[in-house]
Amino acid sequence: MRLVICPGIHDPKLTDRFLERLSEVWEAENPRQNSQTVSHVKIFPAHKHPPFSALDIFHFLCSQELAGESLVFVSFSAGVAGAIGAAWMWQQLGGQVGAFFALDGWGVPLGGNFPIHRISHDRFTHWSSAILGSGGDSFYADPPVAHLDLWRSPQTTKGWHVSQTAGGIETVTPTTAAAFLVHLLKHYGVQSVV
Fold it and tell me: Quick check: pTM over 0.85?
């Protein structure tokens, strides 16, 4: 399982910080993990190519020797638009998509025959984005945080893990954006976030 990070239009240092914060949460839950783990993360260079371009992301994936690997996409902001298209293309050419995470992909329709999860910086974004495809379990920040703070500091972004029971009843559980994401990444078989 390979983790693919698709940032938005922002300073690349924010993506580095995002991965550092996720790694801290990951390590806190797995203190015995070997630090010599081979990297399973590919980061799309959004500072060199438009993150909203599905074709550019797809070409990047094809250049990374990922044939035969199942990919889990974690995308942010404008990167959500490009990543969902790249995920569809990856599947159309026989690749596997293990899951798709959209962090603040407001206004981006999400659909596919793979698990999709939305993570939003506030309840309004969560609710209004769900109209365009809510996917599975989701998260929204409460209290709201700034758009970039969701990417910069997911470990301090408190909010609600929203899930549906088998009977269609919605349940909410308090958590952080980072803990929500780490929990589901492990569920889908991602081995590391570094």
Answer: yes
